[in-house]
UniProtKB/TrEMBL annotation, chain A:
<feature type="domain" description="ABC transmembrane type-2">
    <location>
        <begin position="37"/>
        <end position="273"/>
    </location>
</feature>
<dbReference type="InterPro" id="IPR013525">
    <property type="entry name" value="ABC2_TM"/>
</dbReference>
<keyword id="KW-0813">Transport</keyword>
<feature type="transmembrane region" description="Helical">
    <location>
        <begin position="151"/>
        <end position="174"/>
    </location>
</feature>
<dbReference type="InterPro" id="IPR047817">
    <property type="entry name" value="ABC2_TM_bact-type"/>
</dbReference>
<keyword id="KW-0812">Transmembrane</keyword>
<keyword id="KW-0046">Antibiotic resistance</keyword>
<feature type="transmembrane region" description="Helical">
    <location>
        <begin position="123"/>
        <end position="145"/>
    </location>
</feature>
<keyword id="KW-1003">Cell membrane</keyword>
<feature type="transmembrane region" description="Helical">
    <location>
        <begin position="38"/>
        <end position="58"/>
    </location>
</feature>
<dbReference type="InterPro" id="IPR000412">
    <property type="entry name" value="ABC_2_transport"/>
</dbReference>
<comment type="similarity">
    <text>Belongs to the ABC-2 integral membrane protein family.</text>
</comment>
<feature type="transmembrane region" description="Helical">
    <location>
        <begin position="70"/>
        <end position="94"/>
    </location>
</feature>
<dbReference type="Pfam" id="PF01061">
    <property type="entry name" value="ABC2_membrane"/>
</dbReference>
<feature type="transmembrane region" description="Helical">
    <location>
        <begin position="248"/>
        <end position="267"/>
    </location>
</feature>
<feature type="transmembrane region" description="Helical">
    <location>
        <begin position="181"/>
        <end position="201"/>
    </location>
</feature>
<keyword id="KW-0472">Membrane</keyword>
Amino acid sequence: MSAISTTLPSWNPFSRWYSDGWTVTKRNLIKIKRSPDMLVFAVIQPVMFVLLFSQVYGGAIQVQGTDYTQFLMAGIFAQTVVFGSTFSGSAMALDLKEGIIDRFRSLPMSSSAVLIGRTNSDLVLNTISMVIMMATGLAVGWRVHSSPAEFLAGVGLLLLFSYAFSWVMALLGMSVKSPEVINNASFLILFPLTFVSNAFVPSDTLPTPLRIFAEWNPVSSLVQAARQLFGNEGTAPVPDIWTMQHPIQTVLIGITVMLVVFVPLCIRKFASISSR
Amino acid sequence: MYNVHNTAGMNTMTIIEATGLTKTYRSKSGPVHALAGLDLSVPRGSVKALLGPNGAGKTTVVKMLTTLIRPDSGRAVVDGIDVVADPKAVRRIIGVSGQYAAVDENLTGFENLEMVGRLYHLGASESRRRAQELIDLFELTAAGNRPVKGFSGGMRRRIDLAGALVINPKVLFLDEPTTGLDPRSRIALWNVIKRLVADGTTVLLTTQYLEEADQLADDIVVVDDGRVIAEGTSDRLKAQIGGHRLEVALVDAGAGASEAARGILARFGDGEPTVTSDGRGLEVAVTDGPRALQLVLAALGDAGIELHDAGMRRPTLDDVFLTLTGHKADKAHGAADDDTLDSKEAVKTR
């Protein structure tokens, strides 16, 4: 055996934290590159959704003051980032099941590095999805009717939301017994959450109980914020409740709350998990 | 962290010191005491094996010493560092290879080891150099640049073991290093471990196989129900249970022949002969197997007792348990423990 001394370089805590997070991010990105099913999820599914909704429902759904494709895109962006974040949960559950978490936890790495790496790489995956959806949207006639700064703010808001939501899902992923649970649960919870909102149809067309749910649904605020920032709102009246009247503030508050609550919870949970 | 001076004083001799470790898991059928006050002491530079059946608590001990789980009570110190008070300092000096190869399926062997090096903070170029060195050392050169997904079980274990050696650890933990491997891969892995041991690395390993403990360890600790029930060198343990088991199956199962055979076995064996588990033969522990077999066969021949079958075998974990506790190792109780899963993978060898 070679003579490696066990006295390791003593970098400052920040550079260590940064380097550990980057090492795990890189590992996750390699994984994405080598698993075609994940790329299908990230690339083909968004394209399919944009095409299906705009071409199939586009003619049937009337939106006041704009056409359906303009109205639809913010909704599809929001749905995709919400679903994209669930990947953080199933990936954490899978790592736990496969035992690699035990390897990570027995190494002298930063205690948040695995979580940082997870949420970072999923942000990359979501960004790729966004770019592809935007290109597809532009191809079927979607246009941004706002300033470049507003456009970038809209993209940033969607991605920030996906990043914060990744932490929520990561905590779930560490709490369940198998990755399948996350996939099934997210299907059961997130489908109603994204569909009973203003993402695909104006919420005033819904029956009253669903309409009230849709108006208070945080996904609706996210969609509304993105529509505003992309200039795709149309002329339909916005429901007269604070979260819909101030969607950008609402989403920013939501992002802050998710990060403040779930980042510490995740780090605490990570310090005690071990595969069985 | 109390007793800093004391631990510093004693760590020249003992590198692992654990006292009164307990851990209780809740389960549907009530609390399960995975560890019920386990004490352990491992001298520096030695190889110690924790021998016990599934659910004895072996994995729980390793997880505690490697900072993965916290004891409910008790204290454990590795190289003078308390595992609960300063887990990160412990992680800097240990290497762990678990029961299930903890490697990333999608990374190549090289990428796995390089990643571990980076996470030990070896730096980029040193991590790459060390990864390559380990790939060569573990004879994985041909497979090093393919994703682990396509590796055989034995190759996965070798990558996992290599991951535990990215730094030269002061203590190497091996949790059932060969469970689930075919006999050839098992022997290959034993040889790798023996080479490490020859370099003076302290090793704590767990196993279900007496032969494995015998092959690798200086000292064997027998664990049952979360407690140490016997401890000593492998020679002492074998002296206690006999080096071999000698078995004969008689043609005439009548009482007369049976009694005569019993007398002969008792004469050449250590201790009282017993009826074999299938009920059709007799067995006895013997120290020098081949010699005893010759003598027993000659004596049975002289007495005119005919045999269906005769032979000797190495004692199994069951024999150890039967001798030490009076019950078999794979008992029905206490099954809901941390390492029940491995029963699916367990391969019985003789």
